[in-house]
Hints:
The protein is α/β, with parallel strands linked by helices.
Amino acid sequence: MTPLLQLRDIHAAYDEIEVLHGIDLTIAPGEVVAALGPNGAGKTTLMRVISGELEPTRGDLLVGGRRMNGAAASDLARAGLCTIPEGRGVFPNLTVRENLWMMTHRGMSRSAIEEAAYSYFPRLEDRRTQTAGTMSGGEQQMLAVARAVSTRPSLLLLDELSMGLAPLVVNELLTAVGKLADTGVAILIVEQFAEAVLKFADHAVIISHGRVTASGTSALIREELRNAYLGTA
Ligand SMILES: Nc1ncnc2c1ncn2[C@@H]1O[C@H](COP(=O)(O)OP(=O)(O)O)[C@@H](O)[C@H]1O
Ligand SMILES: [Mg+2]
Protein backbone atom coordinates (compact mmCIF):
# COMPACT_ATOMS: atom_id res chain seq x y z
CA MET A 1 0.00 0.00 0.00
CA THR A 2 1.36 3.45 -0.91
CA PRO A 3 1.94 5.48 2.25
CA LEU A 4 -0.27 8.53 2.41
CA LEU A 5 2.58 10.63 3.72
CA GLN A 6 6.24 10.00 3.37
CA LEU A 7 9.01 12.30 4.54
CA ARG A 8 12.53 11.46 3.49
CA ASP A 9 15.48 13.31 4.99
CA ILE A 10 13.50 16.53 5.41
CA HIS A 11 15.54 19.60 6.27
CA ALA A 12 14.00 23.01 6.92
CA ALA A 13 15.29 26.40 7.96
CA TYR A 14 14.18 29.87 8.95
CA ASP A 15 16.39 32.30 7.07
CA GLU A 16 19.78 30.64 7.26
CA ILE A 17 19.17 28.76 10.46
CA GLU A 18 18.35 25.10 9.98
CA VAL A 19 15.89 23.70 12.53
CA LEU A 20 14.98 20.33 10.95
CA HIS A 21 18.04 18.20 10.27
CA GLY A 22 16.76 15.21 8.32
CA ILE A 23 13.37 13.89 9.36
CA ASP A 24 12.05 10.54 8.09
CA LEU A 25 8.42 9.65 8.71
CA THR A 26 5.82 7.46 7.02
CA ILE A 27 2.07 7.31 7.61
CA ALA A 28 -0.26 4.81 5.96
CA PRO A 29 -3.98 5.39 5.35
CA GLY A 30 -5.91 4.78 8.57
CA GLU A 31 -2.82 5.07 10.72
CA VAL A 32 -2.37 7.38 13.71
CA VAL A 33 1.20 8.53 14.30
CA ALA A 34 2.25 10.57 17.32
CA ALA A 35 5.29 12.85 17.19
CA LEU A 36 6.32 13.82 20.69
CA GLY A 37 9.02 16.23 21.73
CA PRO A 38 9.86 19.17 23.93
CA ASN A 39 9.13 22.80 23.22
CA GLY A 40 11.31 24.09 20.39
CA ALA A 41 12.08 20.62 18.99
CA GLY A 42 10.70 21.51 15.56
CA LYS A 43 7.25 19.90 15.69
CA THR A 44 5.32 22.90 14.41
CA THR A 45 7.97 23.51 11.76
CA LEU A 46 7.44 19.94 10.59
CA MET A 47 3.69 20.63 10.34
CA ARG A 48 4.44 23.73 8.27
CA VAL A 49 6.58 21.73 5.88
CA ILE A 50 3.90 19.07 5.43
CA SER A 51 1.14 21.62 4.90
CA GLY A 52 3.14 23.53 2.29
CA GLU A 53 3.67 26.68 4.36
CA LEU A 54 7.42 26.19 4.47
CA GLU A 55 9.41 24.62 1.66
CA PRO A 56 11.97 22.07 2.81
CA THR A 57 15.56 22.97 1.98
CA ARG A 58 16.39 19.31 1.37
CA GLY A 59 14.69 15.93 1.23
CA ASP A 60 11.37 14.70 -0.16
CA LEU A 61 7.80 15.40 0.85
CA LEU A 62 5.57 12.76 -0.74
CA VAL A 63 1.79 12.76 -0.49
CA GLY A 64 0.11 9.68 -1.90
CA GLY A 65 3.41 8.82 -3.58
CA ARG A 66 3.69 12.18 -5.35
CA ARG A 67 6.57 14.51 -4.61
CA MET A 68 5.07 17.77 -3.36
CA ASN A 69 8.13 19.85 -2.44
CA GLY A 70 7.36 23.48 -3.13
CA ALA A 71 3.65 22.87 -3.76
CA ALA A 72 1.33 25.63 -2.60
CA ALA A 73 -0.66 25.04 0.59
CA SER A 74 -3.81 25.12 -1.55
CA ASP A 75 -2.50 22.26 -3.72
CA LEU A 76 -1.76 20.20 -0.63
CA ALA A 77 -5.24 20.94 0.69
CA ARG A 78 -6.63 19.73 -2.63
CA ALA A 79 -4.57 16.55 -2.20
CA GLY A 80 -6.58 15.95 0.99
CA LEU A 81 -4.41 17.52 3.62
CA CYS A 82 -6.01 19.36 6.52
CA THR A 83 -4.26 21.03 9.46
CA ILE A 84 -5.57 22.02 12.86
CA PRO A 85 -2.98 24.54 13.98
CA GLU A 86 -1.71 25.15 17.48
CA GLY A 87 -4.32 27.26 19.26
CA ARG A 88 -7.32 25.81 17.42
CA GLY A 89 -8.52 27.98 14.60
CA VAL A 90 -12.21 28.45 15.14
CA PHE A 91 -13.89 31.81 14.60
CA PRO A 92 -14.73 32.96 18.13
CA ASN A 93 -17.36 35.50 17.08
CA LEU A 94 -19.37 33.04 14.99
CA THR A 95 -21.73 30.42 16.32
CA VAL A 96 -20.92 26.72 16.23
CA ARG A 97 -23.22 26.28 13.24
CA GLU A 98 -21.73 29.21 11.37
CA ASN A 99 -18.24 27.83 11.96
CA LEU A 100 -19.37 24.56 10.39
CA TRP A 101 -21.24 26.22 7.53
CA MET A 102 -18.03 27.91 6.41
CA MET A 103 -16.87 24.50 5.25
CA THR A 104 -19.60 24.23 2.58
CA HIS A 105 -17.13 25.37 -0.06
CA ARG A 106 -16.00 21.75 0.01
CA GLY A 107 -19.21 20.81 -1.76
CA MET A 108 -21.16 19.37 1.18
CA SER A 109 -24.50 20.87 2.15
CA ARG A 110 -24.88 22.72 5.43
CA SER A 111 -27.04 19.98 6.90
CA ALA A 112 -24.65 17.22 5.81
CA ILE A 113 -21.74 19.04 7.43
CA GLU A 114 -23.67 19.55 10.66
CA GLU A 115 -24.77 15.93 10.71
CA ALA A 116 -21.19 14.70 10.26
CA ALA A 117 -19.91 17.06 12.96
CA TYR A 118 -22.55 16.08 15.52
CA SER A 119 -22.04 12.38 14.91
CA TYR A 120 -18.48 12.84 16.18
CA PHE A 121 -19.34 15.34 18.91
CA PRO A 122 -23.01 15.17 19.99
CA ARG A 123 -22.28 17.92 22.51
CA LEU A 124 -21.81 20.41 19.69
CA GLU A 125 -25.41 19.93 18.60
CA ASP A 126 -26.66 21.28 21.92
CA ARG A 127 -24.32 24.22 21.44
CA ARG A 128 -25.07 24.86 17.79
CA THR A 129 -26.34 28.42 18.25
CA GLN A 130 -23.74 29.35 20.86
CA THR A 131 -20.94 31.75 19.96
CA ALA A 132 -17.81 29.62 19.65
CA GLY A 133 -15.63 31.96 21.72
CA THR A 134 -17.87 31.53 24.76
CA MET A 135 -17.44 27.74 24.86
CA SER A 136 -14.84 25.91 26.95
CA GLY A 137 -11.42 25.23 25.46
CA GLY A 138 -12.32 21.58 25.02
CA GLU A 139 -15.54 22.38 23.16
CA GLN A 140 -13.70 24.81 20.90
CA GLN A 141 -11.17 22.12 20.11
CA MET A 142 -14.03 19.71 19.33
CA LEU A 143 -15.37 22.29 16.92
CA ALA A 144 -11.95 22.63 15.30
CA VAL A 145 -11.80 18.86 14.81
CA ALA A 146 -15.40 18.78 13.56
CA ARG A 147 -14.59 21.46 10.99
CA ALA A 148 -11.62 19.44 9.80
CA VAL A 149 -13.69 16.25 9.57
CA SER A 150 -16.21 18.01 7.35
CA THR A 151 -13.51 18.63 4.74
CA ARG A 152 -13.21 14.83 4.36
CA PRO A 153 -9.43 14.92 4.63
CA SER A 154 -7.20 12.03 3.72
CA LEU A 155 -4.45 13.32 6.00
CA LEU A 156 -5.14 15.27 9.17
CA LEU A 157 -2.40 17.12 11.06
CA LEU A 158 -3.07 18.05 14.68
CA ASP A 159 -0.71 20.42 16.47
CA GLU A 160 -0.89 20.25 20.27
CA LEU A 161 -4.50 19.15 20.36
CA SER A 162 -4.42 18.56 24.10
CA MET A 163 -2.77 21.80 25.18
CA GLY A 164 -4.41 23.20 28.29
CA LEU A 165 -7.26 20.70 28.31
CA ALA A 166 -8.44 18.34 31.06
CA PRO A 167 -7.55 14.63 30.60
CA LEU A 168 -11.18 13.61 30.18
CA VAL A 169 -11.70 16.08 27.34
CA VAL A 170 -8.44 15.03 25.71
CA ASN A 171 -9.64 11.45 25.84
CA GLU A 172 -12.91 12.40 24.18
CA LEU A 173 -11.09 14.27 21.42
CA LEU A 174 -8.65 11.45 20.81
CA THR A 175 -11.48 8.92 20.69
CA ALA A 176 -13.04 10.94 17.87
CA VAL A 177 -9.67 11.11 16.13
CA GLY A 178 -9.38 7.33 16.41
CA LYS A 179 -12.86 6.96 14.89
CA LEU A 180 -11.78 9.15 12.01
CA ALA A 181 -8.70 6.99 11.46
CA ASP A 182 -10.97 3.93 11.33
CA THR A 183 -12.54 5.46 8.20
CA GLY A 184 -9.10 5.42 6.51
CA VAL A 185 -7.83 8.91 7.33
CA ALA A 186 -4.10 9.12 8.08
CA ILE A 187 -3.39 11.20 11.17
CA LEU A 188 -0.29 12.90 12.51
CA ILE A 189 -0.59 14.29 15.98
CA VAL A 190 2.22 16.29 17.53
CA GLU A 191 2.35 16.93 21.24
CA GLN A 192 4.79 17.70 23.97
CA PHE A 193 5.25 14.69 26.22
CA ALA A 194 1.56 13.81 26.46
CA GLU A 195 1.43 10.09 27.18
CA ALA A 196 -2.34 10.08 26.64
CA VAL A 197 -1.74 10.26 22.91
CA LEU A 198 0.25 7.03 22.84
CA LYS A 199 -2.82 4.98 23.72
CA PHE A 200 -4.40 6.09 20.43
CA ALA A 201 -1.33 5.95 18.21
CA ASP A 202 -0.25 3.04 16.04
CA HIS A 203 3.30 4.19 16.26
CA ALA A 204 5.21 7.13 17.59
CA VAL A 205 8.42 9.08 17.20
CA ILE A 206 10.32 11.35 19.54
CA ILE A 207 11.57 14.57 17.96
CA SER A 208 14.37 16.37 19.66
CA HIS A 209 16.49 19.25 18.31
CA GLY A 210 15.09 18.77 14.82
CA ARG A 211 15.82 15.05 14.62
CA VAL A 212 13.91 11.83 15.17
CA THR A 213 15.67 10.37 18.17
CA ALA A 214 13.40 7.35 18.67
CA SER A 215 10.77 5.59 16.60
CA GLY A 216 8.63 2.56 17.24
CA THR A 217 5.47 1.19 18.76
CA SER A 218 3.64 3.26 21.33
CA ALA A 219 4.76 0.79 24.00
CA LEU A 220 8.38 1.27 23.05
CA ILE A 221 8.12 5.05 23.00
CA ARG A 222 6.32 5.05 26.35
CA GLU A 223 9.26 3.09 27.72
CA GLU A 224 11.73 5.57 26.16
CA LEU A 225 9.93 8.48 27.77
CA ARG A 226 9.86 6.82 31.18
CA ASN A 227 13.57 6.09 30.96
CA ALA A 228 14.27 9.68 29.90
CA TYR A 229 12.32 10.97 32.89
CA LEU A 230 14.14 8.64 35.24
CA GLY A 231 17.47 9.54 33.69
CA THR A 232 18.33 5.94 32.93
CA ALA A 233 18.34 6.28 29.14
N1 LIG B 1 8.92 31.83 12.33
C1 LIG B 1 10.10 31.49 12.86
N2 LIG B 1 11.22 32.20 12.60
C2 LIG B 1 12.41 31.83 13.11
N3 LIG B 1 12.60 30.78 13.92
C3 LIG B 1 11.51 30.04 14.24
C4 LIG B 1 10.22 30.36 13.73
N4 LIG B 1 9.34 29.44 14.21
C5 LIG B 1 10.06 28.60 14.99
N5 LIG B 1 11.36 28.96 15.01
C6 LIG B 1 12.44 28.25 15.73
O1 LIG B 1 12.53 26.93 15.22
C7 LIG B 1 12.74 25.99 16.26
C8 LIG B 1 11.60 24.95 16.27
O2 LIG B 1 10.38 25.60 16.62
P1 LIG B 1 8.97 24.89 16.52
O3 LIG B 1 8.90 24.15 15.24
O4 LIG B 1 7.93 25.90 16.78
O5 LIG B 1 9.08 23.84 17.72
P2 LIG B 1 7.93 23.08 18.54
O6 LIG B 1 6.65 23.18 17.78
O7 LIG B 1 8.43 21.68 18.66
O8 LIG B 1 7.85 23.75 19.87
C9 LIG B 1 12.84 26.80 17.55
O9 LIG B 1 14.20 27.02 17.81
C10 LIG B 1 12.14 28.10 17.19
O10 LIG B 1 12.67 29.16 17.94
MG1 LIG C 1 4.79 23.83 18.31
